[in-house]
Amino acid sequence: MTDMKQTDLSRFHVALILGGAALMLSLAMGMRQSFGLLQSHMIRDMGITAADFSLAIAIQNIVWGATQPFVGMLADRHGARPVALMGVVVYGLGLVLALTATSAWSVTLGMGVCVGLALSCTASNIAMSVTAKAVSPMKRSLAMGSVSALGSLGLTLASPMAQHLISTAGWQAALIGFLGLVAVMLPAAFMAGRADQIQVPAPLGVQQTVTEAVREALGHKGYVVLAMAFFVCGLQLVFITTHLPTYLDICGIDPSIGSTALALVGLFNVLGSYLFGWLGGLYSKRLLLGGIYVLRSLIIAAYFAVPPTPTSTLVFAAAMGTLWLGVVPLVSGLVIHLFGLRYMATLSGVAFFSHQVGSFLGAWGGGVIYSHLGHYDLAWQGAVAIGLAAGLFQMTMNVQPSARILNERTPPLPG
Fold first, then answer.
1. In the beta sheet, which residues pair with residue 198?
2. For the chain, how big is the Rg over CA atoms in Å?
3. How far does CA 11 lie from the centroid of its chain?
4. Were 116 and a residue from 64, 109, 123, 382 both cysteine, which residue would form a disulfide, CB within 3.0 to 4.6 Å?
């Protein structure tokens, strides 16, 4: 099919693109966020340590972050469809390697390196890029929030499914179940890739190369603040998804509470992502984003400061879920506001690298602290302290668009 304008799309075709992006994001993130349920079983059966497993998840996050800018460049240049389809295949390969693993090294290669690369190709950055192309600017923030919201439903499916299979047939069966979900991701990635046929309006000013776009972004103080604060987002969320099941286990709470908690995170994230996508179209994105970081930190402090109970754990999961992926439409919206749509996937990917450095520290650092101290106190206290600082820092972000974008949006009058 030939290229088309966004206005040429029927509602059906828009729904097809957004639905594919949401389903792809949903399953990619749902499986990845359920890996913590496998930790204690793989440790017991394979003889690896909590630090070994945490390192695999940490490497997954750093690979995801390190490759995301380059994957974004590929998507901006060649389209999202080939990138997403490649990512689905690599995701399946990673799960097969984990399923057949006999050592910490093979777990790291599968769940770490392969899944990390696959997430670069199938998760939020590519899904938001596809979404932004498919809708008008007036509807963009709400659409990105809606895709993020629907994208969180995968956790409500993957987590209970994994826990059921672990309880009835073992952790290997859970990974086989995940391979079935990977098969569903293939048509979803193909549908989302239809956005490649949509023409992005050419900028009015001087055409940029991708290198010039990255240099422009790194020279913008507001973008640097955005990326630095995004570090804390990754640290807090991956610490929780990786270590909450183990924390509940050492506190003597039934394992089913851990899987239910993760499912609640996904369920309440539907509300939160839609809510913040809607609010981002009405109010200051930087204040909303900073507020999310501060509220998360206060909720983490309130939960970990006292011994957990099943009730407090489920309330904690619901509260955190409301604040979970609501950051995605806000960050993506700020990147578009500052620099336009042309290199959105690339520039969002560069900022996301900071997020994933935080994720690496949250996953691996939490495991190291627990392995050495026998508790998570220092880990959650650190997550709270830097979360509060990052939230306040985010609220000071300079949101004036780049000089290039200002010129494009307010072209000079003819002489």
1. 4
2. 20
3. 27
4. 64
Which residues, in sequence order, are CB contacts of 74 under 8 Å at separation 6+? 83
The DSSP 8-state label assigned to residue 78 in this structure reads H
Q: In residues, how long is the chain?
A: 415
More confident residue, 129 or 203: 129
What's the rounded Cα separation, in Å, for the pair 109 and 406? 45
* CATH class in words for 7-198+206-403: mainly alpha
Among the listed residues 55, 33, 29, 40, the one whose alpha carbon sits nearest the alpha carbon of residue 255: 40
Integer CA distances (angstroms), 117 to 67, 126, 399, in order: 7, 13, 31
Q: Are 71 and 356 in contact (CB under 8 A)?
A: no
pTM for the full predicted model: 0.75
pLDDT in tens, 26-83: 999 889 888 888 888 888 888 888 778 888 888 888 898 889 888 988 888 888 899 9
Please give the average per-residue pLDDT across 324-345, as a whole number. Answer: 87
In whole angstroms, what is the distance from residue 381 CA to residue 372 CA? 16
> Does residue 8 surpass a pLDDT of 70?
no
12 versus 334: the higher-pLDDT residue is: 334
DSSP 198: B
